[in-house]
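User: Here's a protein and a ligand (cytidine-5'-diphosphate). What would the complex look like?
Assistant: Let me lay out the input and then the predicted complex.
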Amino acid sequence: MPDRIAIDGPAASGKSTVARMVAARLGGFFVSTGDLYRAVSRAVLDRGVDPRREAERVADLLPDIDLGYRRGSGSVLDLFLDGRPVSSEALRGPEVSEVVSFVAAIPAVREWLRDRQRACCRFGTIVMEGRDIGTVILPDATHKFYLTASPEERARRRLAQGGETAPGTSLAEVAARIAERDRIDSSRAVAPLRPAPDAVIIDTDGVPAPEVAERIVRRVQEGQGAA
Ligand code: CDP
C-alpha cells in the first residue's frame, strides 16, 4: 500500500513548498487541496455569485462545476476546471483569496470535494496538504504532520511570495488578512483547522523549507509519524 502523507497547517505555514519537496524526494504525487477550494471559488465567481453574500446559492452551482485531477507528465497531477487546466498561480489572486474561506466553510462544498481528494490516492504515493487532511480526508494516512509558524513569520512569507497580495500591500495588512482567514478556518462548524491527535507538530519559525522537508522525509523513511 503506497504511503499517504498528510500535511496540515494554517495559511502561509509553508505547507505547499514543503509538501512539494517531500513528494519529489519520495517519488510521490503532491496535492494542494487549497487549490480545490480556490477552484470552486473561481468557478462560483465566474458564474456571477458572491459567496460572501449568497452562500446558499453556492451549493446549487456545484453540479454544474466540472473539477478534478488528471495525471500529467511524470509525477504531476494537473487540475482541470470546466474542461481547462488551471494552475495554482492563477488561483492565488486577491479576488479568489478574499472569498475562499467563505466557500470552504460551506458544508456542501466540503462534502463535494471529499471524494475528489480521496480519489487522488489511486495515483500512488500521495503527499496531500491542507487543513483537514489528517482529521477528515485521510484519517488513516500513514503519516500526519502539522506545520505551525508565528503570525509574523507567516505574513513575511506571504508578502515575499507575492501573487496573493496586491503591489504595495503592507506587512500589517497581510498579517490582518491571514489572521482573518485563520479565524474563519479555525472556528467553522465543519472540519475546523486543528492538528489530528496523532499528528507530528513541527514549528517552522526560522527553519528553512528544505530542512522541514528533510525532517518529514526522515520520519517517513524511519516509519515514524505514523497514524
Ligand atoms: O496557501 P494558503 O495556506 O494561504 O491557503 P490554501 O491552502 O490555498 O487554502 C485556501 C483556503 O482554502 C484556506 O484558507 C481554507 O479556507 C480553505 N481550505 C480548507 O478549508 N481545507 C483545506 N483542506 C484546504 C484549504
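Summary: The chain has a mean pLDDT of 92.
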